[in-house]
Structure formats: C-alpha cells, structure tokens
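Sorry to interrupt, but I need a hand with the structure work. Could you write out one complete protein record for me, on any chain you like? Could you add the entry underneath, on a fresh line?
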Amino acid sequence: MIPKFDLLPLSPTKRLGTFSRKRSSRVAWLLLALMSIYAHARENNPENAGEGSSTNTKLGSLLLANGDVYRGEIALGKDVSGKLVWKCPAFMGDVVFPWSAVERVSQPASSGETQLANTDAKELANQEFVFELHNGETFSGQWADWTADHVEVRSPWAGVQQLPRSELRSILRAIPASASDTGILQPDKWKQMVPAIKPNGRSKWFSRSGAMETETAGTAISQPVFLPDLAAIDLDVTWEQAAPNWMLTVGEPRRLELHFRKLETRNMISITMLVDDEISADIATSLISSEGVSSISLRILCDSNRGRFVLLKGGTAIAQIKMAKAVRLNGNRSLTFTNIGSGRLSLRELKVYTSIFSAPSIPDPKNKDPEDNQVRSVETLLQTGETYLGVPTGFDRSTGTFGFEQTSIDLGRVAVDQVSRIEFPERQEPDPQNKPIDLLYQLDLRSGARYSGQAIQMADGNITMELAQAKVRVSIPVSEIVSIGINGSRTMPDATAATANAASPNAAPANSTPVEASPMKLSSPWGTSLGRIDKVDVVPANAGNEPRKSLFWKPLLAEGSYALASSLSGTIDPVAANASPAKPARSAYGQISKTQKEPAEGRSLRADEPSLFLTNGDCFPAIIKSLDEMQTVFHSTMFEGTKINNELIRGIRVLAHAGMEQLDSGAQKKLLTLPRMQRSNPPTHLIVARQGDAIRGRLKSINDDFAVLEVRGSDRSIMMKTIAEIIWLIEAPEVVPLTGQNPEASTSETENRETQTSQAETSETQKKEDGISNANESLAELQCQALFDTGARISMVPSSISDNILSGMHPQLGVCQIDLASVNRLVLGDAIAAEATKSRFGKWKLENAPDPKFVNDLDDPDAQSKGGSGNGMSQQLESLVGAIAPAFELPLLEGDRIRLEDLRGKIVVLDFWATWCAPCIASLPKLNEIAQEYRGVNVQLIAVNIEQKPSEIKSMLGKLEIKPTVALDSDGAVARAYFAEAIPQTVIIDANGKIVKIVVGGGEDAEKQIRTTLDSLINVKF
C-alpha cells in the first residue's frame, strides 16, 4: 500500500526551492515494476551470478596497494592489533598485512536473501540510509529524527547517534547487496570478439591467477552486463607495456568509452572518458604522471537518471561528462575491453554493480549552462522519480514524514519511506585543489549500509572503525561486510621500505636469502604476490599432517614469511627493477623462438643448451656416454647422478637444427602413423639425420661412434656424427616423481635383465614405493622446476637456500643446485606436469592407422546387428560382390585417361592405395609382380591413387622401382563408389564387368586370395 501525500507538483521550468519536476506516476510505477521483476529474474539466474558463481562462491579477494591480489578470506579469531590476518590457500598458514597496505577486501555476496546475524540489523534491512559527510565519512542506519542542528540515526552497530546537519553532503537509501549487486565479471564468461577465433583456434586472451591477460595488440573481449540506473563500474588493470594503451567501452553502438593511453611526447598518461548518443556527446580528459605507474584502479559512477558520469581515482573525481537523459545508458549492455598497446596487459578485476553514491562535482568552465556550475539548493529525489528542491524541515517522528521550508508554494509533506536520496549543496572550499584528502576506509555491508572512517582495527571477528567528524565508533561483524576499501587519496607504500621494516631484527638464518635479493612475482590460481623466496624450512605438523619442508615466501607488503602450500600450482618469476623483465632469446625446452631461427642443417649445441630431455619436462646439458636397452649413462655439471632409466627419457638432442620444425603436416603424419601389422612390435625411436631425413626403429645402444637401431628385425649402425636428434616415440608415462633416488642404485640392476623386466611390471603400489606416483596425487613436499634462458629445465624438491643458491634433490638424479639469479621462472607443483606436455618432443607420439572396416567387424561380436557381415567384410562391400562394377573415367599419371567400360573383355584388378599407407607400399610391388605374371592372359592392373599429388606418387614409385598403371582419383569419388574406407583394398572385376572378389588389407593371405581368384577366372574363361 503506497501512502498518499498532499503534494503539489510544479512546473519543470522553475527551480531553486519554489518549484519541482514530476513525471507521470503511472509510467514511473510501471518502470519500477518491470525493473523489480527483471532484477529478481537476474538474481535467480545462475548465468548472471557474479561473485557468488561457480568457483567464487566461497572465496573473496584481497587487493594490496602495490597491486598484489590474494584469493581467500579474512581469518577470524586471529586478531592482531592494527593488522589484517588473511587466509589464502596458496600458503600453509595465515598471512598478516598492515592495514596501511590494504587497498580493498571483497567477500562473496550472498546468493539468497541477505542473512543478518544482528536482530536490529534485520529490522533495519530495508529502512537504512547512508549519511555522507563533507569530509568523506559515512554513517548508516535508520533515519530517526531531523532538527535544525542535527540528524538522529539509529545504527545496529553503534546505537543512536547525532550527526551535525552542517556536515551533511548527501543522504542515500541503502540497497541490499544480495538483491542488486551483479558482482565481479568472471574470466570464463569473457568472449574474444576481435579478432574472431577460428574453429579449433586459440584466444589471444587467457585466464591467469583469476585475471584476464593478453600479450597481443588489437585484441578485444566482451561480456554482457546489466547496468542499473545508479551504477558503478570498478576496474583494476596492470601492465608490462612501455606505452600502455587500452580502452573500456559500454554499449553498442559505442555509448560510454574510457580510453587510457600514454602520451608519446610526454611522461604522462591520458585518461579520456566520452559519451556519444543520438542527441549529444561529451568528452573529458585527465592527465596523471606515468612515472613508476604499472597499475591503476578506477571507478566510473553512472547516473542514468541525470545522464551524469563521473570518473574517480582513489576516491577523487578526475573527470565528469553528461549525455542526454532521454537516451539513458542502463539495462542490458555489452561491455568490451580492448588492448591496443604491445606487451602484457592484465585485467585483474572488472565489477559492475548498483551503487548508492553522491558523485563529487567538478566545475566546468566550458559549460555553457550556468545552472550546472552554481551552488544548488537541497534536492530531494523520491523513489517514484519526483524531485523536490528545498530544505527539509518539520520532521514528525510518529509518522516518519517531513516537509520543506516555507516557500511561495506549499510542497506538502514527504514520507521517509519514499525518499531515494537527498543531496546538499557543495561547500566552497578556500583551495580545494591543494587540500589533502584524508585516507578513509569504507565498509560496504550486505544490507547496503556503508561506513567510512579512519583508524580501522580487527578484533574478535569484528571490524572496528572511528568516524572523526561524526565522533562515532562502530564495530561490525566480518560476516556482515561485503567489501572493505580505500576511499580517498593515499601514498603508495614503498615495497622496499615495507620489506625492510617488516624484516626481523635478528640475523637472517643460514638457509635464507639476503635482503638484497631481487624481487620476484608469485602467480597461482589464488592470486599474485610480489616478494622473494625467504628460506627453506620445516613446516611443523598440524591437523594430522606430518612435518615437511617447504619454500617460505616473503610478500613485500606482509609481515613475515610464510610456507607455500604443498599442493600449490603456479610460477615464480623474477621482476626487473624499474623495467619489464627481458624476454629470453630462446623459448622453453630449447625450442626455436620466432625471433631466432636455426639453420636446417644444424649447428653444434652450446655448453649450456639442453641436450637430454626427460618425460617430466626436465631438459639440461649433458654428454651422452653410452646407452643400452635399459639405461643411459651421461655426464652433466648440473647433477651428481650419471645414470637414468630409458623409460624416463623423451629425447636426445645432438645438434641445434630446424629440420624437424620445417616438416609439413603430411610428412609428420606419415612418421607418426603406426600400421596395424606393427602394433605388436612398434618402433620406439625416431632418429633424425642432420640433412633432415628420419628413420624409425628400436634404439638398442649408443656409444661414442655409433647408434644401433633395429629396423624390421635387422640392426643398422648409424654414425653419431650424422645424427641431429633422437626422439622417443613411446607414450610418456604420466608420473610425477616424489622423492629422490640413489643415482648409483641401478648399477647392479643393469647387469640383471630379469630384475629390470620384473620392475617394469610392478604394481602401482610398488611404483609409489620406488618414488613414482600418478600426476594427480598430492606431493608430500612442494616440488619446483627452474626454467633458464637457454631453454634448460631442472626439477627439485628444495632443501635449503643460501646466497641466492637453491639446493635440493632431483627426483632421479640426486643432489643439484640452482642459481636463482640465472632463472627465468620457477614452476611449482602440478603446473610442472602440465608444462611437460609442451616439451620439444611432446608432439612426437605414434597413432594407430585407421582399422579396416572388416577388422572392426571381426573384433565386434555384434557387428552383424550393426550393419557388418561378421565374416570379414562390411555389408556395403559385400553388396558389391556379384554386381556390375561402378563405372568411372580417370586421368592417368602419365597423362592419358582411362574408362572402365573400355576394359570390357579383360580381367581388371583395381588397387586403391596411397603413399602414406605403409601396407599399401608393401603390397603394391607384389600386385605389380602378379599383374606382370598374368599379363598374357588379359589381366589389367589399375592402381587407383586416392587424393594425392602426382609428384608424391612419382617419388614413391621411383623408390619402389615399379611402373604400374596409376589412375588419379583426386577427389576420392571413385574410392567412395567402391566403399574403399580402409586401404589397401583390391577389387577384382571379371571380363563381363562384374565384381567377383574384394580383398581388404595386404600380406601373404591377401596375395594368396588374389592369385586364387585370378586362376578361377582364367579357368572359366578358357
């Protein structure tokens, strides 16, 4: 029931306390109803869930002043005076930060109705207002009274308080967060728009540590959003670009745009905001210094009711624009983020939500409308859309209504329940540009209430805050808070000073890094953190866990160092001082980078380049001494161990060459296709010659001079000086080493083949005891893998660190040491196994050739019910036997054409084949030999090649030294007419043009069937 009031709507042409504007109430109520229905639908639609969706239902986020992001939650019951205690899954313990380093804390919004623990809070859930003071402080509660001197507010967290009227800047109705907050836009909802992604292509944007990142200029991502009438758009962006250049666009066609770019001729960054609609356009630009700036947090306040948009940085308005109110930039809109600059750009957060705000105004001397630059009267806006100008007075506590100061026309009375907001005139400051803005902390509650103040503390699960201007102290449970953030300007904490202040006064332990070590960046699914590896130490047993060693990470803005979780998966990257880290000349695993191509004939490897590649992704420089069928003996300056089992090797690189990189897809497919006849004894290695030729077989041994390769039952000796690399073709085992092995333990095992064979057949339990486990199992200790700019990679379980040298145990090769100064990246945990699939030799895996249809029929007991004959031939092929052969006309390899009808009276043997089919190549010479034998009795062989180039065919026939009649089935139409789904397929046609026999496959049995059929046809004919 809506209460009626004695209101006199006035002409919209007059203002300043005596007149007001009133829209059609019927239209207003209709719009309100539609908006309520739509908001309710969006709230209950999981596709539109923000912070409370998918993986973000339980974790919040912490943003620090230096740009660090930590996913997790506030650790309750761990109170430290003047500190924030944060629980992050990346660490084994809670992390402590000084409040001065905190930029923003966000907690997941409730997916259902607002849950308030306090009884008073429940009663005030939809009756609260936010009272904003001129100094930026805010206080929330029920509007209880209004006098000439103060406004009385009843807060569930501070009781009844009186705020001085002279300090009021605005009164805003609180809107519960759960009913209106669309939340943070999720990375998995972004769609790349420019350039369009091709089928099976990869996006230029990728999700990393909860952020969207790209390294490609000219790429754009988009996501649909719902923009309320009163909205805020928060975005947080960081970059590693010499000249950052990016753009945020709202609406299609372009309506609101924020363009951020570094000026070419000045050490300044330009932030331009503009609107463009059918009626009007406006633009405003603000400049900030680019010195030392590599990240920024901005907020756009959007008031569609007034067509006003204000850009804020650190709580300070830096630009404002206006658009035609008739256009109204609200409702369903597309939001697009575009990277224009070169280098890495990271969109760490983008949030669109309903916001109660009173945007600070910026006088515009260019504005021709003097009304916008003058001091306004008090303005009251109702939820129905009506606006009244005048000073509220005569508050009636019993009815909750008030009137306005006496004017020439009585405006009547207004109920507090109908008020949307009241805005007071801006105060004229003597020198507002030079006046410092106090650092205020802002608490946003689930009820929509807001508290802003100073001297923030955490104790007993509550956040306590002082409001200096209001002389109020509030204490709010953490469970009621949606976000905690900075509202106002601040001086960015100096990371180096913060680290020095946080350092222990005691001497550094022997296994810790010196304070002067270069900073590094920890990236994981739980966020990013600037800091350094502090030490390797034992983590005490807790909650049933055994004591274990771990890396201790010291965040630059935290107090103390903290053990990384043993299940952590991520990376640690060096950060160059005052510059973006230089990219290595070579890519990972010794692969050729785009900027540095190796010659096809190859060159000698440098002493620091990787030559031995392991299945776990490790690769390092090594001199191969010998190899037998079980293990490889080598020498490397990086390890004490000298032996490794062959099953753990993925490749050996002798030369740096680009021969295999230049192989076309057809040649690579041929090398990796395994015929059915070889499946019982497949080739296990591929030896690549310096000239680019390759041969498959089973590697038996290596010494200083020769490599012995078994090829089809025969041993071939290949001189080592002719070899470029050796590739293991067997499937790499998906294992993760857990503990170190004795590098010399395999000496006696090598001498005993039976023991080795027995070990290869052990159960999974025995493999775990030997130090190998499945990749998806948890590691007992955190494992890391170091990446060097030479392409080398070394894994270890760290044991100590001293003078920036990280020591540890390699899973198979024993003790090793890594100089962190020479490391490009450290990969942690499960990310090691994921990276191993990208190794130089990872793509070299055998694939079985497609089975002929009749083979599938024989293997399938239900083949007959599925359409197969069950007798070694499909029903389609069986239907051809006895029928007239499908007619065709094809060009010949030598240039003429051939028609099947012209061969009536002859016995025709059609052989469907291709050069990439190994059984075809094996059977074609036999068929050619048979055709020569039966030539005198009018037998004609036609080798029908399927969809290949003449040059490929001639090359193969030259190697086979045969010259059969070859017909070119360039589009595969004839093969389809004869249902040649598996090749080789031989079709025998009698002199009358009928198909009498179809043989699929090759070998002695196929040859015998062909001869028997030809003999029977000849006997019948003659």
Remarks:
- The first strand starts at residue 60 and ends at 64.
- The chain has a mean pLDDT of 75.
- The radius of gyration is 38 Å.
